[in-house]
Amino acid sequence: MNKQQAIFDLALWMGDNTLILGHRLSELCGHGPILEQDIALTNIALDLVGQSRMWLSLAGEVEGKDRTEDDFAYYRGERDFTNVKLVEMPNHHWGYVIARQFIYDAHHLAILEQLVDSSDQAIADIAAKAIKEVQYHLRFSSEWMIRMGDGTAVSHEKAQTSLEDLAPYIKSLTLTDEISTFAAAEGIGFDAGRVEQEAWATMQKVLEEATLKLEPSEYYHKGGKQGLHTEHMGFILAEMQSVVRAMPGNTW
């Protein structure tokens, strides 16, 4: 276990999460409920992909094998991705998309608030660039959770059902392993316990105003970081990687 391995592990995990969720949101471009929200969600997708580029570029630099951000995004198989299963979930409907985003945003912001003080300057710099964007992401998803929860009977039901469906995927955002524990101890990474506490406090405050409920699930999904994904992941990669794999080495 060493610092280089810890930085690589963290950068890859952060980059994979933002890449896959950014791709999921990009699928909704042109399908938002109204034009303003369509543009807002597309901008969030662009933010996340931009953050992914920084994280995956850092992973390549630290790894030292001449792999670029594109290599990580387009030339890895499903078992090589480390993202949590939450970000793979399909865009069933607007309420589900917002609930998924809200859960991720609350944890993402709590993580970045620690990483801005990382002992590794490159990690701290990326976190400082990303945090302002993620503050907006959380404000956007929080406002929509309140709007749906405190709206009509139909919007309330869809938001509540979505939260319940996604509850088993939340814990994976703060699961620890030997490398992440080492990173936290060295001041490189983040304290998962603090993230969990702060994220749940943030979510509960918003959900109380939204008249919605979310409880930790006794059962939760593991395996994303170890390359074990849902049945949706293969379809995401098939779409995301198809052009590059069909014409490897081409430039535009």
Looking at this protein, list some descriptive labels.
0% strand; 252 residues; globular
Question: Describe it for me?
Answer:
This protein is an all-alpha fold and 252 residues long. Helix 2 (35-63) runs antiparallel to helix 5. The protein has 9 helices and no strands. 65% of the residues lie in helices and 0% in strands. The radius of gyration is 18 Å and the shape is globular. It has one domain (3-246): Ferritin (Up-down Bundle), CATH 1.20.1260.10. The model has no long low-confidence stretch (mean pLDDT 95). It starts with a helix and ends in a 6-residue tail after the last helix.
Give me the Rg, rounded.
Answer: 18 Å
- Per CATH, the superfamily is Ferritin, core subunit, four-helix bundle
Tell me the helix content: 55-70%
CATH topology: Ferritin
Briefly, what CATH class?
Mainly Alpha
The biggest sheet, with number of strands, parallel, antiparallel or mixed sense and barrel status, is: none
C-alpha end-to-end distance: 40 Å
Fraction of residues in β-strands: under 5%
